[in-house]
Amino acid sequence: MQNQFASKDSNRLVYLLIWALVGIGYTTILIFILHVEWLQASVDAFVFSSLLAVMGIAVWYIVKFSGLDSARVINTLATHLVAAGMLVFVLVSGGEAILNSFINNQSEFYEFASTYHVYRLVIGGVIYVLLAVNFYLVFYYEEYRSRKIREVEMDKHLKSAELNMLKAQINPHFIFNSLNSVSSLTLTNPEKAHEMVVQLADFLRYSIRKNADQLVKLEQEIEAIQLFLEIEKIRYGERLKVDVLCDEKSKNQVLPALILQPIVENAIKYSLHETDLESIINIGCKSVAEDLVITITNNFDKGVVTKKGEGIGLKNVINRLSLIYNRQDLLDTLIIEDVFKVEIKIPQA
Question: What is the DSSP string of 43-103?
Answer without folding.
Answer: HHHHHHHHHHHHHHHHHHHHHHHH---GGGHHHHHHHHHHHHHHHHHHHHHHHHHHHHHHS
